Amino acid sequence: MARLKVNPTRMELKNLQRRLLIAEKGHRLLKQKQDALIRNFMEYYEDALSLRKQVDYEFDVLNQEYNYASLELSNQTLNAILRNNQSSPSLKMEFQSVMGIDIPHYELIQGEAPAKTTSVLLTNSHVNTMQEEGAQSLQRIVDLASLEKKCFMLSEEIKLTRRRVNALEYKTIPDIKETIRYIELKIDDQTRSQQARVMKVTNR
Question: Best exposed site among 11, 107, 152, 168 by fewest CB in 10 Å?
Fold first, then answer.
């Protein structure tokens, strides 16, 4: 807590009292914003955590299906089948406002499914499962990327807001209050000194 370097006058006292009201109001609003940001972050974090577990599980399933398929087909044939039957999706990015923060949101746009050129004899149920599950997993990966980006940006905003709240709570407001007390004491001393001088003059 440090006293501000100002002249101990009534004008400065009024200015500081106004600054204190503004600082306290700003602190209250920033605290509310911080609490709302944390609530939003926790919601997105829980959704991202749940989706992450689902994506990890699906990756394990796809990896298992790939291993099963590779027992019946060579890696070269298997990779050629997957490439030939692969669509060309694209990403669309839009910005969503969350607590005044523009956060990117990703949307997967599935491309047209290519005409199947692979012989039925060269494929198997594991390959079909990989193709079906892979498309769904890709959508969830994009959703997960959106959620994790929201979490990252909200966490950065929470840190920034917390620093501002702490600066007001532990530095700005205490310094203003200390300076107000100092000026009030100075003004009281000046008032008492003036009264004492007036009494001396009156008693003569």
Answer: 11
